[in-house]
Amino acid sequence: MKKIIFALLFGSVALTVNAQNYMPTEADLNQFLNSKMYVVLETNPIAEYNFKIQQAIKDAWTITPYEFISVADFETMYNDPTKSFLMMTQVVFENDQTKVRYNFLSIFLGNKDAKLIRELHDIAAIPLSYTEVDEEFWVYKMESLVRFMQNHIQNMKDNPKMIKKNIFQHYNENMKDIKQKTLYLIKEEVAPSINTEDKIKKIYPYNVKFVTAQEIEEAITNRDPNVVFLHKVGPQGTRLKARCYKIIIGAGDSNFYFFDYHWVEKGKNVDGLLDADFKKMAKKK
Length: 285
Prior knowledge:
Layout: E1 4-10, E2 13-19, H1 26-33, E3 36-40, H2 48-60, E4 66-69, H3 71-77, E5 83-93, E6 102-109, E7 122-130, H4 142-158, H5 167-172, E8 182-185, H6 197-201, E9 208-210, H7 213-221, E10 227-233, E11 241-250, E12 256-265, H8 275-283
Parallel strand pairs: 3-4, 3-5, 8-9, 8-10
Antiparallel strand pairs: 1-2, 1-5, 5-6, 6-7, 10-11, 11-12
Helix pairs in contact: 2-4
């Protein structure tokens, strides 16, 4: 993975720290699986994220004991190696001239020798959104993202060779299976040139359905094995030049079936799934 800078924003206190290009080891995975995971809630007590992450953990998390804590609690606990921490962090890609900040969901290991938070090792992280984008555009997918992280950690434990593999290439091997399922899409997250089912059918002759965020959340809650959905991380009009990440996730198994990104630029690529993405999925065998 690329080197990144984590900016952990806890209330009014901003901590900008350099994260190394760190790959988890088998020892890290064992430490995590023998730890108690502490879920750090946002300081805003009415943040929808707080409600959704608590419900997702209660409904889906099984591989470690867990407890919900405050930011203040975390700051007194991160030196304990018997503890691990799930939290929302802010990420900036190193050497990225756009200086875009992303929200990530990350899991860190406690470290008794860490004098600063930046010295904690992360073992899993997944992009949620641009920091400027309102949480309503992504928070409803929280249970599926939590389940993916849990499955991913267990997969690395069961198959240590995965740790050193190109993870995105590994999950893109599942792309061929999208055609066996119904792809749920939100109209605003698809390029305008191809945002009808009839237009899509011309290049991707498989099951596609335009739905609401509520319908996606219901498919996730019901763990519908026949549905996959798009998790898009894009600027939502907040920037003229930025990356658009596109992840297709199974509602039933929370597996990744597709991972890619492109640059959004005015007059060029738009912030959404492109016709090239549908062509790539249709071709995959």
